[in-house]
UniProtKB/TrEMBL annotation:
<dbReference type="InterPro" id="IPR012334">
    <property type="entry name" value="Pectin_lyas_fold"/>
</dbReference>
<protein>
    <submittedName>
        <fullName>Uncharacterized protein</fullName>
    </submittedName>
</protein>
<dbReference type="InterPro" id="IPR011050">
    <property type="entry name" value="Pectin_lyase_fold/virulence"/>
</dbReference>
Length: 174
């Protein structure tokens, strides 16, 4: 179980993957009768800056079916990445990989150039900027397996970004 985590005031450069990977899995490598899926909740991520990241795999926040990552707050987050990925990659549906090691490469190329968000409950984002250095054909955000009540205080840019699973009318009152 991982809870009550703060990751703050970090600057990164030239990353191979996006700066954030929050992954809840179910490798279940302990005794079968007492090992269950853990929890990942109450995570605060303020003041993160990342420059010149590779573009193929961005930020990934992914729980697993029936076990969402809960209560995440991301604020004052800036990522500049190389961009230049075709819109075709935006159609990819990453595997769940529930029993795989929690590494960004397990998911393969991502359909979002900013955030891939799956199986989350209570995500708050504010002052988030995603800055591709070259035009990127993928949406900035791809959201899977979530409910309308999951999100609050979304970045204003979300209203004008293309995203597979975002319906503008949901965010009209944000």
């Amino acid at each position: 179980m991982c809870e009550d985590i703060t990751i703050s005031n970090i600057s990164m450069r030239n990353l191979i993957y996006g700066p954030l990977l929050f992954r809840l899995g179910a490798r279940l490598r302990g005794p079968k009768d007492s090992t269950g899926v853990g929890a990942l909740r109450r995570i605060l991520v303020p003041n993160i800056v990342s420059y010149n990241s590779d573009a193929s795999i961005g930020n990934i926040l992914s729980g697993i079916p029936g076990h969402p990552i809960e209560d995440i707050k991301i604020a004052n987050f800036y990522i500049q990445h190389k961009g230049g990925i075709s819109p075709e990659q935006g159609k990819i549906v990453p595997p769940e990989g529930v029993d795989k090691y929690p590494d960004p490469g397990v998911f393969g190329p991502m359909p979002a150039h900013g955030f891939f968000l799956r199986h989350l409950r209570h995500l708050e984002m504010s002052h988030v900027e995603i800055a591709p250095m070259a035009m990127d054909g993928r949406p900035a955000f791809v959201l899977e397996m979530w409910s309308v009540r999951t999100f609050s205080r979304l970045p204003p840019q979300l209203h004008r970004l293309r995203s597979r699973y975002v319906m503008p009318e949901i965010f009209a009152s944000v």
